[in-house]
Design goal:
This protein has strands at about 1-5, 10, 20-25, 35-40, 45-50, 55-60, 65-70, 75-80, 90-95, 100, 105-110. β9 (about 90-95) and β10 (about 100) form a beta hairpin. Helices cover about 0% and strands about 55% of the residues. The chain contains no helices and 11 strands. The strands form 2 sheets. Strands 2, 4, 5, 6, 9, 10 and 11 form a 7-stranded mixed β-sheet that branches. A 4-stranded antiparallel β-sheet has the order 1-3-8-7, with no helix packed on it. It is mainly beta and about 110 residues long.
Length: about 110
C-alpha cells in the first residue's frame, strides 16, 4: 500500500510561483508513473503532468511551458514547479500513483 502526501500549496499572486511536493511512504513510488492532477470548484479532476521512473514527462496543454514536473527516486519525492501562475490555475492539486491518490493541496492564485 502507498500513502501519498502533498504539500506546498498556498495563496500566490498572478505571475507568481509555487513548488508542490508529493511524498510517498510505505512502498514508495517504485518504478511507477506518477502524476499531478487538479480539481477546481465545480469542475472535474483534470490531468496536469506526469513523469516516468526515467523522468520522461508529459504535460497538459494548459500548463506546458509554465509547469515542470520532476522526481527524486532515492527520496520517493515528486515535485511540481509552477511558474507564471494564473487565476485559472486555482484548484486542489493531487498526486497520483496508479490507483493511489493523496488528499491534495490547495493552490489559490489571486491578487
Amino acid at each position: 500500500q502507498v500513502q501519498l502526501v502533498e504539500s506546498g500549496g498556498g495563496l500566490v499572486q498572478p505571475g507568481g510561483s509555487l513548488r508542490l511536493s508529493c511524498a510517498a511512504s510505505r512502498s514508495g513510488f517504485g518504478t511507477a508513473v506518477v502524476g499531478w492532477y487538479r480539481q477546481a470548484p465545480e469542475n472535474e479532476r483534470e490531468f496536469v503532468a506526469s513523469i516516468t521512473y526515467a523522468s520522461s514527462t508529459d504535460y497538459a496543454d494548459s500548463v506546458t511551458g509554465r509547469f515542470t514536473i520532476s522526481r527524486d527516486n532515492a527520496k520517493n519525492m515528486v515535485y511540481l514547479q509552477m511558474n507564471s501562475l494564473k487565476p485559472e490555475d486555482t484548484a486542489v492539486y493531487y498526486c497520483r500513483r496508479g490507483g493511489y491518490w493523496g488528499k491534495g493541496t490547495l493552490v489559490t492564485v489571486s491578487s
